[in-house]
């Protein structure tokens, strides 16, 4: 088995319904995503998952110098940012890609699949 | 190179795909497989010229390479026991019963042509691992520096390992789609050979031959897939006309070719393959293209061509693939049936000004309609957009003949 990050990217600027067009759309996406999460757990692929607060809430810390330097904002200024992710445990890339397709449909966003070197 | 060594290299090249594929299954790692195969070649070069090629050279190479790989992994086990032990144990169990066929090469070609691999890397990996071409040969064929090609192949192999691209034939439900990318890779290799870009040879026989060889292997592995048969038929029927297709560095169009120069054996094989497709009756893109080429190669002279049949086949192709490129090829056939004016009206509607065959078709239709001034412009655009030296020479001649 191997671990994969399924990362969901979305616009940095969100409206009151997150990345969605309306309240109903947002609630529906939450419901389908919740159902997908349940399926991942039931089928044994689940490791960890979560949605992130907007990138504007991010803080960058550089601790390489003598004193840590703390900066407000995300590391990269861009229009598209990481909005949430799953970490899954799957036998190979084909399984990971199939799950990513289901997750993408559930959360209504594109999903980037990336293998972990290993998991601590 | 002494004759013995040349014979060894030839056998090695023929056996390479099978050898690598079986080593990848055994050791689960492409780099281990390639190194072991290379060491087996060195041993063969030492022994065979003196002792002769063994009766089963493929088996000999596989056994030798497997021993070399195990020796190497044992040595390295001392350094990194956990990782290497995992490699050694990779495939001692029976294969997952996921694929309909168990041939190692078939698994490997689906890995090489996996949609998660960039398409230029799919082509390169397939030629390297299944075809046994060297990185230098592949780089030369695709006109890129050897270091670029080496990086492309290395990057793809790293992704296969890191992302665990599976080494397996896709399940039946996914097979048609995944097979599509394998067939597309083989046809891409063939086309680059048949109408080579750049200033070198207008035809690269090593690429057309390799694409046909790999399609033959694929057909023996998947005999029930008519699109594989269709692609092989298509390539064989195009290849049959190769000798007549270039004369004194100029491309010779189909209607001007010396049909006596066509390879009768390949024409007969192609026709048999098309008949086999018709009997299965599950038409697809490559089968229809093969059938169109069968109509052309069936005509004793260009004037005997059954154009209504060709147009009817293109009509079926348009329903499967409504792309403007198919519509362009259909229009060229319509010109023979309904006249160049009807065809030109179809061609002019297509959004293909960046595609050189569109300019070639327009130039030819305008010339036949006697619209010389416009035809000259169209030939100029076609010459500027054409990469193939023989085709450019042909277009220059046609333009020069206009008054």
Folded structure, characterized:
Chain A has helices at residues 23-42, 93-107, and strands spanning 2-11, 46-51, 59-62, 69-72, 80-90, 111-115. Chain A has a four-stranded antiparallel beta sheet, covered by helices on one side. Chain A is flat. Chain A has one domain (2-115): Dimeric alpha+beta barrel (Alpha-Beta Plaits, 2-Layer Sandwich), CATH 3.30.70.1060. Chain A is an alpha+beta fold and 120 residues long. In chain A, helix 1 (23-42) packs antiparallel against helix 2 (93-107). Chain B is mostly helical and 403 residues long. Chain B has 20 helices and two strands. Chain B has helices at 3-27, 30-51, 57-77, 81-88, 104-112, 119-130, 135-141, 146-162, 175-194, 205-221, 226-239, 242-245, 264-280, 285-298, 307-320, 324-338, 340-348, 356-368, 372-385, 389-401; strands spanning 246-247, 250-251. Chain B has a two-stranded antiparallel sheet with strand order 1-2. In chain B, helix 3 (57-77) packs antiparallel against helix 4 (81-88), helix 10 (205-221) runs antiparallel to helix 11 and helix 13 crosses helix 14 (285-298). The A-B interface holds A 2, 4, 91-94, 96-97, 113-115, 117 and B 114, 116, 162-166, 168, 170.
Which structural class is indicated by helix and strand composition of chain A?
A: alpha+beta
Largest sheet of chain A: 4 strands, antiparallel
Low-pLDDT residue intervals, each spanning 5 or more residues of chain B: 89-101
| Structural class designation of chain B | mainly alpha
């Amino acid at each position: 088995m191997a671990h994969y990050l399924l990362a969901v990217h979305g616009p940095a600027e969100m409206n009151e319904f997150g990345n969605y067009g309306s309240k109903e759309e947002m609630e529906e996406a939450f419901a389908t995503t919740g159902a997908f999460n349940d399926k991942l757990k039931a089928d044994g692929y689940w490791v960890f998952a979560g949605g992130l607060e907007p990138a504007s809430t991010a803080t960058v810390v550089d601790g390489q110098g003598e004193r840590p330097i703390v900066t407000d904002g995300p590391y990269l200024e861009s229009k598209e940012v990481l909005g949430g992710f799953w970490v899954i445990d799957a036998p190979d890339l084909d399984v990971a890609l199939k799950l990513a397709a289901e997750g993408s449909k559930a959360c209504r966003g594109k999903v980037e699949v990336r293998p972990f070197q290993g998991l601590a | 190179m002494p004759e013995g060594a040349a014979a060894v290299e030839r056998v090695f090249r023929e056996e390479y795909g099978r050898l690598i594929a079986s080593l990848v299954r055994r050791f689960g790692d492409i780099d281990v497989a390639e190194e072991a195969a290379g060491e087996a070649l060195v041993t063969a070069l030492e022994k065979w010229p003196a002792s002769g090629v063994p009766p089963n050279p493929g088996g000999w190479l596989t056994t030798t390479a497997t021993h070399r790989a195990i020796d190497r992994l044992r040595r390295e086990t001392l350094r990194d026991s956990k990782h290497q032990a995992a490699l050694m144990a990779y495939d001692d169990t029976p294969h997952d019963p996921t694929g309909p066929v168990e041939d190692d090469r078939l698994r490997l070609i689906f890995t090489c042509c996996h949609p998660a691999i960039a398409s230029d890397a799919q082509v390169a990996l397939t030629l390297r691992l299944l075809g046994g071409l060297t990185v230098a040969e592949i780089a030369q064929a695709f006109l890129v520096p050897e270091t670029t090609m080496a990086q492309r192949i290395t990057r793809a192999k790293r992704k296969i390992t890191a992302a665990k691209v599976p080494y397996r034939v896709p399940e039946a439900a996914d097979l048609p789609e995944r097979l599509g990318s394998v067939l597309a890779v083989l046809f891409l290799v063939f086309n680059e050979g048949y109408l080579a870009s750049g200033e070198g040879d207008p035809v690269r026989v090593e690429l057309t031959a390799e694409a046909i060889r790999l399609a033959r292997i694929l057909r023996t592995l998947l005999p029930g897939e008519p699109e594989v048969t269709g692609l092989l038929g298509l390539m064989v029927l195009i290849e049959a006309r190769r000798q007549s297709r270039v004369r004194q560095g100029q491309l010779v169009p189909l209607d001007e070719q010396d049909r006596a120069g066509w390879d009768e054996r390949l024409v007969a094989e192609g026709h048999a393959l098309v008949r086999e497709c018709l009997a299965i009756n599950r038409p697809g893109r490559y089968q229809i293209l093969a059938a169109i080429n069968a109509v052309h190669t069936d005509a004793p002279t260009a004037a005997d061509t059954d154009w209504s049949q060709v147009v009817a086949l293109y009509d079926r192709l348009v329903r499967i693939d409504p792309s403007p490129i198919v519509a362009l090829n259909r229009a060229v056939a319509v010109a023979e049936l309904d006249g160049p004016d009807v065809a030109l009206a179809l061609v002019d509607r297509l959004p293909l000004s960046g595609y050189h065959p569109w300019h070639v078709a327009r130039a030819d239709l305008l010339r036949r309609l006697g619209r010389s001034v416009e035809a000259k412009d169209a030939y100029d655009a076609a010459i500027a957009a054409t990469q193939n030296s023989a085709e450019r020479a042909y277009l220059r001649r046609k333009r020069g003949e206009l008054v």
